[in-house]
Amino acid sequence: GTEAEHALIATLPPTFRWGVATSAYQIEGAVAEGGRGRSIWDTYCRVPGMVDGGDHGDVACEHYHRMPEDVALMRELAVDTYRFSVAWPRVQPGGTGPANPEGLGFYDRLVDELLGSGITPWVTLYHWDLPQELEDAGGWPVRDTAHRFADYAMLVFDKLHDRVRAWTTLNEPWCTAMLGYHEGRQAPGRRHFGDAMRAVHHLLLGHGLAAQRMRAADPGIELGITLNMSTITPATDSPEDVDAARRGDGLGVRLYLDPLVKGSYPQDVVADLAARGAALPVQDGDLEVISTPLDLLGVNYYFSQQVSGVDESGSAVDAAGLPVGREVPTGRPVTAMGWEITPGGMTELLTRLHRDYGLPMYITENGAAFDDVADDDGFVDDADRTAYFAAHLAAVAAARQAGADLRGYFAWSLMDNFEWSYGYAKRFGIVRVDYETQRRTPKRSALWYRDTIRRVRDGHA
Ligand code: PNW
């Protein structure tokens, strides 16, 4: 990082939490062990053409069998908090009924291993692995799934809340709804906008039902939800571009945060949905449940976007008669995902979230895939990823200086893993995984992160 970035990062307080994040299906493997049921990702990965290289999570990083080694690695990297997700089909195969003790047992041991290593566990209850049986019954577009989620959440909560104090209900409901049910780019691979909007409401309802019960069972926990968000700016100040930015922000940010924090859906978004023949299936009392008070907001930030409301030929409607919303590259450098590197947009997003919603925030994910090259020892000298982290940590510190209440940061990801529909080809880890040998080797970015944590948090020069 630059000197200016390091100076900003050095303003992060000693109480700031420094972590790494992963999710169950992306790292665990062992999909047929310990009584685990099947999830929508097991199914989706078998549909030809859905995942690059025909990859799947059957083996992944074998974390299920290498968990103590992975916790030791985190300790070496000086992180104080680990954000991981619990696989619903391990805990409750089939998505209903009693807990599978072997499934819960894995997370029970993980929590003890972490605490024994001085690392605070942070649990995400849902990171996209819906039990297949629940999808067969209709999935998130169906109201019952919200109730099934709350029941599952309590099985995990009852087992772990004596030792786990920080809880995230859902990871990125936008991805579940929009990529899973509208664009079909993630499991379950459905393509229906109305279903996606029904999914949004039932995801939020499931979050609220779980949140109410968790709070009632133990008022002392730290409870939140994680959303992926970006700053969306209009490409020009034309009315079409400005409206495209409004719609993008509506569907990406306000559709979630308004009901969660203010207890109502944004009227302009509801009107946009109606114009597309879609609606949020709200019943009496739902918004009270959804707006159960949050202790924190988890923010996953990867990039910002510039959008236009007209296509290349200048038309504001597409072939289906829908308003055009199209990303227009700014020419900034991109990562291996093709995502523009936009740390300034992160400061903007965080200050705006602070102003509009006022919640304490954690960056629950931030990171980048690059085309890593390992040397003979497996070492990756990833100056690009290191620069990405430095710029974004400085952006977080800048938002904090501007008044936003930012309490911690999790690098995505602890290690290379199964990057969903991109398979293993896209590497987000700060630790390299050799998928032939399962050897883990910290990259230069991991060493930089470790040294930064020691300098800023522990005050070592
Ligand atoms: C997040 N988008 O997914 C997930 O939480 C992680 O599991 C994933 O590995 C990571 O980011 C990197 O992709 C996203 O299209 C997927 O805006 C897609 C988007 C954002 C986040």
UniProtKB/TrEMBL annotation:
Keywords: Carbohydrate metabolism, Cellulose degradation, Glycosidase, Hydrolase, Polysaccharide degradation. The keyword Hydrolase applies. It comes from the Bacteria. It catalyses: Hydrolysis of terminal, non-reducing beta-D-glucosyl residues with release of beta-D-glucose. The active site is at residues 172, 365. Its EC number is 3.2.1.21. Belongs to the glycosyl hydrolase 1 family. One of its GO terms (cellular component) is cytosol. It is an enzyme of class 3 (hydrolase). Substrate binds at residues 26, 127, 171, 302, 412, 419-420. PANTHER family: GLYCOSYL HYDROLASE, LP05116P. GO terms for biological process: cellulose catabolic process. InterPro entries: GH (IPR017853), GH_1_N_CS (IPR033132), Glyco_hydro_1 (IPR001360), Glyco_hydro_1_AS (IPR018120), Glyco_hydro_1_beta-glucosidase (IPR017736). This is Beta-glucosidase. The keyword Nucleotidyltransferase does not apply. The lineage of its organism: Bacteria, Bacillati, Actinomycetota, Actinomycetes, Pseudonocardiales.
